[in-house]
Amino acid sequence: MSEVLPILYLGPASGIAAVTTTLGSGYQVLSPATTPDAVLPLLPQVHAILDASMKVPLRQADLDSAVHLKLIATATTGADHIDSKALAARNIPLLTLKGQKQVLNELTPAAELSWMLLMACARHLRAANRHVEAGQWDRELFPGMLLKGRTLGLIGCGRIGQWMARYATAFGMRVIGYDPYLPEGEWPATIEHTDLDTLLQNAHAVSIHVHLSDETRGLIGAREFALLRPGAILINTSRGARMCSKASRPFRTAACGSMRRSMTTASSRRTSAASVRMRWTSC
Fold it and tell me: The whole model's pTM is what?
């Protein structure tokens, strides 16, 4: 009788059946709660990790205990929560979606989330919803921002940025973009090429879509925040580390007090808690 190999699946419960069916009877799918306390004790027995949650960091000390580990696959383009150097030292492959253009070009959830957040902020949806839930109805408190004729600034004009440009164009917005890594020959016709300072100074809404690296960490700091126009909306559905949380504090205070420079950063599990709080009162 052949050995049944334990495989660790980290992700939503809705994916367990698909993983189990795909792998077949030769594998036992372990699907604990996605917390370090539940996951890390299982590492010594697993032969592969399928990560669709990104909630549990896997550092060298953790990976050293995974003595049977032969593969990690993560359903993301970035994997900064996994110690890739520790894996490389043991010749263990780390598979991500980075470079899988045929698959990625058809995936729009991140762009849809970003556009939803932009619209929610433009219409003060969260505050208006709480207002109605409290039994009130004063429309004058939430006039919102008309998107037609306004300017969307995209920091990062790759796959997600280009979907954002399509949505903005459909709403009648002008789209400007900054991306020093996108070749000139691949620049989208729907996005006007500009530099970062000009983008921040002119955009009514800014949306960030870049990978986390040493170059992009802290990309938006005190200087960049100060360039934003009053009333600008800032969406960050990339990693929270792209923005300096200390630099954002004065602007968070302004947003809570007078909404002169109302901004938001929001994401799924990838954005830092400090970033998520930026516009909790005014959206």
Answer: 0.68
